[in-house]
Design a protein that fits this description.
The complex is a heterodimer of chains A (207) and B (265). Chain A is built from nine helices and five strands. Chain A is an alpha/beta fold and 207 residues long. Chain A has two domains: 75 residues, Methionine synthase domain (Methyltransferase, Methionine Synthase (B12-binding Domains), Chain A, domain 1, Orthogonal Bundle); 120 residues, 3-Layer(aba) Sandwich (Rossmann fold). Classes of the chains: A alpha/beta (207), B alpha/beta (265).
C-alpha cells in the first residue's frame, strides 16, 4: 500500500509523494500510518542506501525535503501528537561555526521520527544544559569540524557532569576530526562516523 | 602556488607517523611532495589537542631537515605557532590561518608581523561563515583593510573564500567564484587560495570534481591551492589550465613539468 509513496520519497519527488499521501488519506488511511509506514520507512531506506554509497548527499537532502513537506501537509489531520522516538538536542560546539554536517544529521534524525531541537552553531555548554532541562531531552548530539573546537566537546560533557545532569542524557559526538577513540576518551555515549550512523546510534540508545 | 597538504594528522595514514614521532617517515612525505611540484609544505597536527605546540615544532624540524621548501604552518593555535615559527629558517613561512573573528585576528596578527610571514586569511567572522557573494567580499574587505593597516603587504595576503561542498549547496561554487572575481578586481596584488577537497565532499568520483574545480577556480583568479600534489591528473588539469589562461609564459611550466613526468592527462 505504501510502495508508491516510498518510491516517491526515494526519488525525491515531492509532488508525487504529496499526491500519494492525499490519495491514501482520502481513502481513509490514518495519516499517522502514512507517516510511520510510508515516510519513516522510506527515510530508513534512504539512510541505508546512503551508508552503502548507493546514493549521495544531494539525494538524501532531496528525500528529506520531500518528507518534511509531506509531514507538514499531514500534520493538521493528525488527531494527536505523533509519539517520537525521543528528543535530541543538537548543536555545533562553542567556537565552531560549521553547520553543514550537523544540519544533515538533524534532518535525518527528524525524518526518522525523532523530535529534534537544533541549537545552531557556537553553542555554549551552559546553553546545552539549560535546553536539555527545558525540553527533558534524551540525547545530546555534539558536532565540531575543527580540532581546536573539538576540545569543547569534552568541556561540554564535563559541564554536564559538574551540573549533576550527566546521567540524565546520552551524549553522542561526531564531525570530521572526531574519532571513536576520542569519543571514548571523553566519556561520550556514542560516536557517529556519518549522518546515517547517527540515526542508528540514537535508535540504539533509545531502545 | 602549490601547497602540499599531505602532512596532516587528520589523514588516517599520517596520524600514526606523527603519533610515533617518526621523523624519517615525515621527511619522506615532504620529499615526495617537493618532487611532485609543491612550492610550500603544509604541516598540521591539530588533532593532537594536548601537545600540538611540541608536535608542530617537531614537524617543522622534520620537514626542514628534508626539503628546501618553505613551510605553511597550519594551525589557529597561537602557542603552536609560537613554538614552530622560530624554527622555520630563512625562507618566508606562511601562517594558515587568520580569520576576521576578533579574538583570533588579534591573537595571530602579532605573529604575522613579527615573523613577516605570508598569511592565509579565511573569509569567516564572528557572524559566521558568509554565504553568497556579498558576504564573502565584505569579510575579505575587512581582512585586507585590517591586515594592511598592521603593515602586512598585499602580496603576503592569501584570501581563502572558503569552499563549501557542492553536495550541500544549490548554487554550486558560483558565489565563491564570483566573490573571487570581485576581490581580484579590487585588489590585484592580493592572492586567493583555497583547499580543493572540500568541494567534492558527499559526491562520488571526487577527484573528477576536484579536477574540474581547480580549472574554474584558476579562471576566477585563485592562484594558490592547498592540494595533494601527487595526484597527477589534478596537477595536469592545473598546469594546463594555467597555461590556457596565459599565466604560464611560453608554456614554460607546462613543458618543464611534462619532462619531469609530474602530471598525467
Amino acid at each position: 500500500m505504501y510502495d508508491k509513496i516510498i518510491a516517491a520519497v526515494l526519488s525525491g519527488d515531492t509532488e508525487a509523494a504529496a499526491t500519494e499521501a492525499k490519495l491514501l488519506t482520502d481513502n481513509g488511511v490514518d495519516p499517522l500510518q502514512v507517516i510511520d509506514q510510508g515516510l519513516i520507512v522510506a527515510m530508513g531506506e534512504v539512510g541505508r542506501l546512503f551508508k552503502e554509497n548507493e546514493i549521495f548527499v544531494p539525494e538524501v537532502m532531496m528525500s528529506a525535503h520531500t518528507v518534511t513537506m509531506v509531514i507538514d501537509q499531514l500534520k493538521p489531520m493528525l488527531k494527536e501528537e505523533r509519539a517520537s522516538l525521543g528528543t535530541v538536542i543538537i548543536g555545533t560546539v562553542k567556537g565552531d561555526l560549521h553547520d553543514i554536517g550537523k544540519n544533515l544529521v538533524a534532518l535525518l534524525l527528524a525524518n526518522n521520527g525523532f523530535k529534534v531541537i537544533d541549537l545552531g552553531n557556537d553553542v555554549t555548554p551552559e546553553k546545552f544544559i539549560s535546553e536539555a532541562k527545558a525540553h527533558n531531552c534524551d540525547i545530546i548530539a555534539l558536532s565540531a569540524l575543527l580540532t581546536t573546537t573539538m576540545i569543547n566537546m569534552e568541556a561540554t560533557i564535563k559541564a554536564f557532569v559538574d551540573a549533576g545532569s550527566r546521567d540524565q542524557v546520552k551524549i553522542i559526538i561526531g564531525g570530521a576530526p572526531v574519532t571513536a577513540d576520542y569519543a571514548a576518551s571523553i566519556n561520550a555515549d556514542g560516536y557517529a562516523e556519518d549522518a546515517a550512523s547517527a540515526v542508528d546510534i540514537c535508535k540504539q540508545l533509545m531502545s | 602556488m602549490i601547497i602540499g597538504e599531505l602532512i596532516n594528522s587528520s589523514r588516517k595514514a599520517m596520524r600514526p607517523l606523527i603519533e610515533a614521532w617518526d621523523a624519517a617517515a615525515i621527511a619522506e612525505v615532504a620529499k615526495l611532495q617537493a618532487a611532485a611540484g609543491a612550492n610550500y609544505i603544509d604541516i598540521n597536527c591539530g588533532s593532537f589537542t594536548t601537545d600540538e605546540p611540541k608536535r608542530l615544532a617537531w614537524l617543522t624540524d622534520a620537514v626542514r631537515g628534508s626539503v628546501e621548501l618553505p613551510l605553511c604552518l597550519d594551525s589557529p593555535n597561537v602557542e603552536a605557532l609560537k613554538a614552530a615559527l622560530p624554527l622555520v629558517g630563512d625562507k618566508q613561512a606562511m601562517i594558515n590561518s587568520i580569520t576576521a573573528e576578533q579574538e583570533r585576528f588579534s591573537a595571530i596578527l602579532p605573529l604575522v608581523t613579527e615573523y613577516k610571514t605570508k598569511v592565509v586569511a579565511l573569509c569567516m567572522s564572528d557572524e559566521g561563515i558568509p554565504v553568497g557573494v556579498e558576504g564573502r567580499i565584505n569579510v575579505a574587505d575587512k581582512l585586507i583593510a585590517d591586515l594592511t593597516t598592521a603593515g602586512v603587504v598585499l602580496d603576503d595576503i592569501y584570501i581563502d573564500p572558503l569552499v563549501q561542498p557542492l553536495a550541500t549547496t544549490n548554487e554550486g561554487a558560483r558565489p565563491l567564484l564570483d566573490a573571487v572575481i570581485t576581490i581580484k578586481a579590487k585588489y590585484p596584488q592580493v592572492h586567493c587560495v583555497c583547499g580543493l577537497s572540500n568541494i567534492s565532499f558527499g559526491l562520488p568520483k571526487r577527484k573528477l570534481i576536484n579536477r574540474v574545480f581547480v580549472v574554474q577556480a584558476a579562471l576566477a583568479g585563485i592562484d594558490s591551492f592547498i592540494l595533494d600534489p601527487t595526484d597527477k591528473q589534478l596537477m595536469g588539469a592545473l598546469y594546463a589550465g594555467e597555461a590556457l589562461l596565459g599565466n604560464d609564459p611560453f608554456c614554460g611550466r607546462y613543458l618543464a613539468q611534462y619532462r619531469k613526468g609530474l602530471y598525467d592527462e
